[in-house]
Amino acid sequence: MERWIADEALTPHARNRHDACRVLGVDEQMIWPEAVTTRVKVGHDRELVSSYPYRSACPSTTWARLARDATRDIFLGGYTNYFFWTQVPDFAGLVRRKAESGCRVRFLIGDPDGETSRQREEVEAAALTVSTRIGITLEHLARLGRLEGLEARFSAPADAVNHVGLSVFRFDDDALVTPHLASAIGHDSPLLHLRRQGEAGMFDRFASHVEELWARGCAIDPRGAEPHGQA
Known about the structure:
The chain is α+β, with helices and mostly antiparallel strands. 41% of the residues lie in helices and 17% in strands. The chain has helices at 2-6, 14-24, 28-31, 33-38, 60-69, 84-87, 91-100, 115-124, 130-144, 160-164, 202-215; strands spanning 48-52, 73-77, 104-109, 150-154, 166-171, 174-179, 191-195, 218-219.
């Protein structure tokens, strides 16, 4: 690692760069910006910043940085969103500060009592069930209470299958997108980091998907949010 950094002309292979950054917990652009620049495309995939075989391979610093730097719109469209409370330091405080500063903060989650949640629990067979993970988010939202700029909704029953299969997390013009594979839990599914470059690109298509789910969702009153609550 010291040899790679000391010699600016020496750039390791992509896999070695990825492994090194994962261990160090930093973005590749921080250490090898030229390597990232040379990957920039001019076609339809130019909005792809990074891709990871697992969501858990995306550095926690990336999640924290995107959430910290967002000023207009934070839209967390995962089915449970529970991992934010443990992965991002003082996430509850960050949500409060963002909402109070004028940033729109939205949580779109699945109904813990819905049929899709029950079916997903059978497929995953995980100790930390889907409804429990949703309950974690609901509990934290209840603690935050009503804040100007903070909104939460359950996805509509008819949209639950589409919601549980694709998580879209938006931070202004950046988005982290996870298509869920078969029985894989979120952190074991792949992740794409997208950055908006123009209209009708990949970013806009995923953003439109989650906005559509949001439009049909049922509002949750954060003050009354409880684990296993109904919309």
